[in-house]
């Protein structure tokens, strides 16, 4: 009994000793948040990291001294000059990381914070909003089926869970396209005294989309434009800032290669494996394809992904017929996939087998591609899976053509062309002064 009392006493003493530190740390965190002119909390199911980066680009170009933090494929802190720093973790990621980022990076001159929500469970999301971020504007990118074990089985339940990050007396911006889900978010926002604003992708032009050298979605760009409008940042400034933003690690880069005298735009779309994502991606990509260029899809089928091969053999005639002029089959299941596509109405003359039934050389693959391009420009889209002998031949060839220009997001973030306009002027001014001094010497 005595030992138990001693243990309780020690615990109470520890709590008493820790309380002043906890109170001090809490007050310091709140002071850092209160100094900010803009606090943006980015939540949703898809596109959070991308939208965080786009919004940070909008704010930087709009003149705000901005710090951003994204989780994404690799956690990053993005400084006011656009430079990125990886976040080093000793163990598993926790939402307390957000407090550390604010403490370390929100200095006295910082005016805006854009931070991606790390929490999944509604209770943690609420804690993130009400204590860690206290945003004026919250973004819910969209509502999709994911994390059902924590957020609910239905889309409506997931919308309610995401609503835990809606500010009190603030603004909710969403790119969710379905009216009934927007209505639900609007009701949840009204309960907190907030207003919902819909970021309509119809406001994004083809010209806006051509400024991105990687796969981007109109919904994401529309969110950037909506937030810019709220902050009185001119549209052209916002678009320029989004174009400059460095994409997340692992995005689909759009690169054009010379293949036997033809200019082929290569779109490695292997990671999009569900029907909704693939269709949306093609809808968004159309604006970035060269006019009148034939689009050739590669169905890259693995032996251990039979269900996926079946899915795409239905999708090509049912959903992608208007997007794909030709299809090349790689890997396994060629005869079955071809028969299914033809049976469902996709012309046999548009299907070209170059997989295991043929075992082609790289030269045969390249020659087939250029033969399907009557003019100078063509588009080649890789789909379904990434690893087959034929796909690896093609990917290695493109990597060889790319040479030393491999993607390095950290280095890319330090390019002057990616910097906000004010930073470019400062650096250019310094460079001009140094050149003048050198000439005088």
Can you put this structure into words, describing what you see?
The mean pLDDT is 88. The strands form 2 sheets. An 8-stranded mixed β-sheet has the order 4-3-2-5-1-6-7-8, with helices on both faces. Helix content is 46%, strand content 16%. With 441 residues, it is of the alpha/beta class. Residues 44-161 form the Mur ligase central domain.
**CATH evolutionary superfamily of the largest domain:** Mur-like, catalytic domain
Number of helices, where a helix is a run of at least 4 consecutive DSSP H or I residues: 17
Largest sheet: 8 strands, mixed
Overall strand count = 14
- CATH class descriptor name of the largest domain: Alpha Beta
Strand order of the largest sheet: 4-3-2-5-1-6-7-8
As a percent range, the share of strand residues is: 15-25%
CATH architecture annotation name of the largest domain: 3-Layer(aba) Sandwich
Please estimate the helix content. Answer: 40-55%
Q: Shape from CA axes? A: globular
The averaged pLDDT comes out at: 88
Low-confidence stretches: none
CATH topology of the largest domain: UDP-N-acetylmuramoyl-L-alanine:D-glutamate ligase
Number of domains: 2
Q: What is the straight-line distance between the termini?
A: 85 Å
Backbone CA Rg: 25 Å
What structural category arises from helix and sheet content?
A: alpha/beta
